[in-house]
Request: fold
Amino acid sequence: MSIATEQPLPDIASYKSLENDELSVRIERVREAMGPELLILGHHYQQDEVIEHCDLRGDSYQLSQMAAENTDCKHIVFCGVHFMAETADILANRPEVFDKRGYRVSVTLPDMAAGCSMADMAGIEQVENCWADLGEVIDTDDITPVTYINSAASLKAFVGKHNGIVCTSSNAPAVLEWAFKRTSRVLFFPDQHLGRNTSLKMGITNDQMPVWDPYQLEMGGNTDAAIESSKVILWKGHCSVHQMFQAEHVEMFREQHPGINILVHPECPQEVNDIADISGSTGKIIEVIKHAEAGSSWAIGTELHLVNRLKKENAHLEIHFLSPVVCMCATMYRIDLAHLCWSLENLVYGTQVNAIHVDDEVSKWSLVALERMLKVK
Ligand code: 13P
Ligand code: SF4
Reply:
């Protein structure tokens, strides 16, 4: 197999100057050379050029399952964002599989700047301070901490240690049910909208859901009474992409396209979720569109690249993007062909760049919470 032989490999800047066609050919050469040793995972929000080179694609829950289930590969290259690659590292290298394989699976994030602004809205110190403050007013043994998978591994470890669990947008209702079988309260971070939208469907009301602002010194900006009467304490975090969808966009589409179906992600604000026809993870959005009646019309409230792909792949449907403003995930978009090619060629030469390797202690406790998540669907 002839792959570029230049040694040492040039830096990312040189790859940036190459045309996409050349990058695509070189990426495929590496895939062919590495065969089943290499697993490229891609989230649905990735750009089409990148998704075409992925072995498997999925929503956050599916991607976690894929990383956990593949027992043949030696290297995972994750086309997604940082917390996803961390999760893949934890699951792919869990002791039970590691002992059988006898080697660590390497995990690479092609661009380390591919983070998630929502995940960054909750830091481990802030969460620990919140927990300590809550303990002054209510019994923390009676709170289940639930972290959305869109969070740093340290937060997953925190919930693992405190009898909590990780959720994704596809199993959040089942996770909250799991939690309420164990305790009478939940602390949900970092996405207030997913927490609120899911809880409302379970009959929990907004006055039972105080919002914890980590930048407020006293009780996250709440009275003791509000915390005492809470069912779900919501972290003040959000997705800057899904926050852009507004109820007025739904109304506008309904007015201009009578009969249109509104399909949104649960990271959208309550006002949008309340009036949408269907709400679900990216995996569910794809499933709904797959089974949609020919000729039906849809306005979809989620990241732009996924909606554009659905439009392209479903010419028999009328698909609109549910916002007049461009809502794309700038960090997901950082993974481009240049970064993918650069990281793959380095991998094949044994000079891994952008390795994601979660600290052992953090991995151990995160795994506890992630394994609970994988059992709840
Ligand atoms: P899902 O793909 O799990 O729906 O998550 C969407 C998202 O925002 C990922 O960051
Ligand atoms: Fe994070 Fe939102 Fe981007 Fe998902 S879409 S990775 S939640 S910023």
Notes: Residues 81, 116-118, 150, 239-241, 303, 329, 331-332 surround iron/sulfur cluster (ligand 2) (CB under 6 Å).
